[in-house]
Structures are given as C-alpha cells and as structure tokens.
Amino acid sequence: MYLLIVGGGKVGAPLASSFINEGHEVFVLDNNPDVVASLQRELGMIASIGEAASVRALQDAGASRADAIIATTNSDADNLAACQLAKTNFDVARTIAIANSPENAELFERAGVDLVVSATDLVLANLATALPAHPLIRLMSIADRSHELVAIKLPPAGTSIGRTLSEIRLPYGTKVVVMITSTGQSKSPDSDPIIEAEDEIIALSPTNSTAELWELLTELR
Length: 221
Known about the structure:
Strand content: 25-35%
Order of helices and strands: EHEHEHEHEHEEEEEEH
Radius of gyration: 17 Å
Structural class: alpha/beta
Distance between the termini: 31 Å
Number of helices: 6
Helix content: 25-40%
CATH superfamily of the largest domain: NAD(P)-binding Rossmann-like Domain
CATH topology of the largest domain: Rossmann fold
CATH class of the largest domain: Alpha Beta
Shape: globular
C-alpha cells in the first residue's frame, strides 16, 4: 500500500519507520525543514517540506495514488484539513487523523474522517524486534475505546492456513480491513482469499474480543 503521512514528528516518524519495515511504500509531508532532513537521514528520500492544508503539497506528495492518508501533526486544524482535502480533491479511500485534543474527536468523525485516534491512546508498533514471532500488535485505539485496529501475523503451522477467510468464525463485530502477504502484497477480504503462512491480518476488533481473535488466528495444529 502507498501511505501518505502528514506530520513527521513524534508520531509520524515512528509510524513511517514501522510501515516501511512492514514493506509498505510511505511518504511523509512536514512543514519543518529540520524534521524532513532528519527523516531523510534515517529513512531515505521519503519526505518533503510542505503544508498539511496545501492542495499543491498533497498533490506533489502523491495523494492521488495514496491508499490512505494519516494526519499526525500537532495541529488538529491541519489534521482535519489534510483529511478533508484528501477526500474531496484526491478521492483517497481511507483517512486517519490524530485528535490531539480529545474534545475534537467527535468533530473529526462528523466531518467524515474514517478513523479518529486520540493522541493519548495511540500505541505505536515499532518494537517488532523485541516481540515474539507472531505477536498481537495494537496499532491504535478508536476514540471511544470500544474498538481497536490490530495487526496479527499468522504462523506457518496455524490452523487457519489454507482456509478461506469466510471459513474462519471470527469474533462478533470483527472486521478484517486488509490482508498483507509475506511479500508485501495486499489481499482484499471482499474476495474471500485463501489464508497463507505469514499473512498479516489488519482488523478492526472490539477491544474486549481482541485477545480471542489473536488466539484464534495463531492457534497451532
């Protein structure tokens, strides 16, 4: 997937690194030259200087081909503007925004942002080397905390391997967003794909069912 991150600071930079490590194509837009220079030193030429609320900057960053835009600046106004411009000007399918002020989360949702994340609840998944081979990674909590976005990589000897997604009885309320193969290719859940070893499932899960989902998908034969 091509992911456009607006804001390369304390949230955006680790997210960019994590997504790159997962094999995604990432580009970061930030209005601070020092931040951009730091990202380029650490991650390569994947960042440029630009304003979150600039149509031209978003266009130059490839918004027209982005699968999702993730707005992580420290300005809620800029985060909201970036998501709205991505939708209206570039038809970006998925918009995600950090709500730095919890009281703004409802405003973001009413404005049509697909996923609103409270800054105080954000959990970054940049610790893969210190985790087990097939961990449950909590990517982010939804504003009301009743659901969370999680990533689960499936073990080669798992009971789910070789079955289609529809054959798996997922916990009630769970929605698979996308499946990523071991080579970084995406598989749409709508096509009912066959589950393969080392596939990573990105799912929106009720918080009280996440542990059950992980146990189901990582159960061994």
